[in-house]
């Protein structure tokens, strides 16, 4: 093959390659903008919001793979569930919510162990403790309640160990230790009451990714 033919072949091949690269760049931009917009919607109406994968021009979810988008969506899915089951006033509970609560705890437990991002693992661990300490779900049996509180203290400690900058987890650990002190659990601070303060939840949407 002559030099001229090689140049023509290279030029012909460059056109579709360039088109694919342009489409990929547009998909990446669309992913980022879509998730940012959905984060804003979640912050405004967390219970009503729903995260969905952005549309893609190219097959094979190339932009998602390039951005590790599956991890982002998995964590956002956990945020959705958490928003629906986080502690709230009595009267909003049902069998369906109980099932969702169990599913949320399992999903958060998995993320706290497997998410590649340390900040997200810490936030997942923090949310496990928040869901567990729902006062409307507290068992009446003293031993079961003590076990529940001790478990929550452990998850908040784990969240702080994973990411020492997690302010929500630090705040929740302090509150949980006060509850533990009220319940006379060993190794806790004997001060405060179960009703002191408010548990901090998932943090600001769009952060920690």
Describe this structure in words.
The protein has 7 helices and no strands. The chain has one domain: Serine Threonine Protein Phosphatase 5, Tetratricopeptide repeat, CATH 1.25.40. The longest helix is centred in the N-terminal third of the chain and has 42 residues, at 3-44. By secondary structure, it is an all-alpha fold.
Q: What keywords describe this structure?
A:
209 residues; mainly alpha; Serine Threonine Protein Phosphatase 5, Tetratricopeptide repeat; 7 helices; 65% helix; elongated; disordered C terminus
Produce a short descriptive summary.
This protein has helices at 3-44, 62-66, 69-85, 95-114, 118-132, 142-162, 167-182.
Low-confidence stretches: 186-196, 205-209
Per CATH, the class reads Mainly Alpha
The chain-level structural class is mainly alpha
CATH architecture: Alpha Horseshoe
Total helical segments:
7
Global outline: elongated
What is the third-level CATH name, the topology? Serine Threonine Protein Phosphatase 5, Tetratricopeptide repeat
Whole-number total of structural domains: 1
Major β-sheet profile:
none
Order of helices and strands: HHHHHHH
Measured by DSSP, the beta-strand proportion falls in under 5%
Mean pLDDT: 74
List the helices and strands and how they pair.
Elements: H1 3-44, H2 62-66, H3 69-85, H4 95-114, H5 118-132, H6 142-162, H7 167-182
Helix pairs in contact: 3-4, 3-5, 4-5, 5-6, 6-7
